Amino acid sequence: MFVDLLIGLIFGTLALLNGYGPYSVLPFLAAFMLDLDLVVNEFIRIFIKKEKRFSLTTLLDEFSYTHKFIFHLPVLCLPVAFLLGCFVADVLFGFLLMIPMFLHLVHDTVDRNFDGVCWLWPYSKDSFKITKSWAEARWLVVRKTRAHLAAEAKTKKLQRARSTKKIFTDNLI
Question: What is the pLDDT along the chain (173 residues), one digit of tens a residue?
Fold first, then answer.
């Protein structure tokens, strides 16, 4: 959170120095804007989950209660920030809005307290996270979804059953 604060202050100051005056608060807010998913998840958990009649919950179940909600999809949030900045002022301001969001996503990728970011989202639903333990052989850890973990568990169970069956039949001969 403090890294996001520092990023927001730096880019808000850059916007102020470049003459964007009243809009200079937007790059500061852009660094925090991605964490609105935590507020939305709380809203869903408290108000919408109690009401089973909403079909919206089935659409949001895939992303809810994680830190990879719609706000943490780089393919969606970065172009929206850039276009919003271009609409408000100009191309430079678009970059001043997009870069703090990008650095926030990089911070969430490196930070050990978060699940990572879905950098390849339309192609993969896995969250990517860079671990801080550089001694490990692999430094890019893919956080697998529940479906992947269930499929792996099923495969391991079948492999154990086959190996047990093979040992049993070998002992009979």
Answer: 678 888 888 888 888 888 888 888 888 888 888 877 777 767 777 766 665 555 555 555 555 445 556 778 888 889 998 999 899 888 888 888 899 999 888 888 877 667 778 888 888 877 777 765 543 545 455 556 666 677 788 888 877 777 666 555 555 55
Predicted TM-score (pTM) of this structure:
0.63
Biggest CA-to-CA distance, the chain: 86
Decide: 88 and 26 in contact? Cβ < 8 Å: yes
What distance in Å separates the CA atoms of residue 74 and residue 31, rounded to the nearest whole number?
13
Cβ count within 10 A of residue 89? 19
Alpha carbons 72 and 63: distance in angstroms, whole number? 10
How many other C-beta atoms are found inside a 10 Å radius of the C-beta of residue 143? 15
Q: How far apart are CA 70 and CA 160, in angstroms?
A: 39
Are the beta carbons of 111 and 63 closer than 8 angstroms? no
Residues facing residue 170 across a β-bridge: none
